[in-house]
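Below is a filled-in request sheet from our internal design queue. Each sheet records the structural input a requester submitted and the sequence that came back. We keep these sheets so that new team members can see what a complete request looks like end to end.

REQUESTER: design group, bay 2
PRIORITY: normal
MODE: inverse folding
CHAIN LENGTH: 233
BACKBONE (tokenized):
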């Protein structure tokens, strides 16, 4: 029913997955508790605000265009210098509007280099000239305002969740961007046109709708021993 808040008890106990691992997976990612996280590191935002005409739905495929054409090349070049990263998508009829953000934990020097690469990207300049992207926000790399690993987590969460959540959302973002790359190779390779990226977004939606219950939610629940949880939408 519209305009009501539903609390849905999701109990994923239907069936456990009996899968044999073909090879031992190795986990080498540094953890947020590592003393190796330098005081010189901080969180940085590169946020892209899109044109969003009144009385229309958000054009979500534009997030995909920026992710594929601008953020993916940045990550391929600077990934060794980035401790953690993620993407964030939002659209609201408020001060934020429709905005796509690339958020990363790195040194000010790396942030400066990434910002310079983004700002001079020819695709971005073309989209700005066209009016598709109306605003770009970069943090001031001359000062670190968010030095702690939990500084971009929700402050209402328990501290231990705030400190470890960047690992979780990075994995989610990595899979999403890999899906974008693979779908773009099929539908939108070497083009700045919007129509092919609408296809990419459409197939992302289908993949989520048809596979979220098992490939995403079931396996996430399995990690936490198939316990009941509440979800609000």
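RETURNED SEQUENCE:
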């Amino acid at each position: 029913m519209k305009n009501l808040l539903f609390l849905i008890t999701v109990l994923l106990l239907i069936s456990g997955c009996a899968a044999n691992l073909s090879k031992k997976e190795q986990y080498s990612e540094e953890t947020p508790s590592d003393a190796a996280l330098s005081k010189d590191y901080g969180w940085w935002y590169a946020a892209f605000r899109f044109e969003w005409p009144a009385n229309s739905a958000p054009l979500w495929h534009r997030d995909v265009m920026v992710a594929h054409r601008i953020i993916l090349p940045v990550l391929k070049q600077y990934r060794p210098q980035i401790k953690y990263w993620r993407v964030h998508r939002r659209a609201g009829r408020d001060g934020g509007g429709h905005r796509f953000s690339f958020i990363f934990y790195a040194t000010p020097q790396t942030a400066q280099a990434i910002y310079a690469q983004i700002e001079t990207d020819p695709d971005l300049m073309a989209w700005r000239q066209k009016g598709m992207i109306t605003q770009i926000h970069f943090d001031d790399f001359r000062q670190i305002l968010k030095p702690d690993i939990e500084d971009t987590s929700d402050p209402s969460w328990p501290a231990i969740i705030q400190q470890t959540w960047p690992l979780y959302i990075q994995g989610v973002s990595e899979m999403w961007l890999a899906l974008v790359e693979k779908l773009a190779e099929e539908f939108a390779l070497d083009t700045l046109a919007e129509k092919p990226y609408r296809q990419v977004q459409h197939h992302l939606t289908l993949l989520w709708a048809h596979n979220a219950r098992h490939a995403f939610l079931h396996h996430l629940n399995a990690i936490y021993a198939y316990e009941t949880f509440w979800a609000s939408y």
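SHEET NOTES:
- Helices lie at 61-78, 108-119, 122-130, 159-187, 194-223.
- DSSP finds five helices and six strands in the chain.
FILED BY: M.R.
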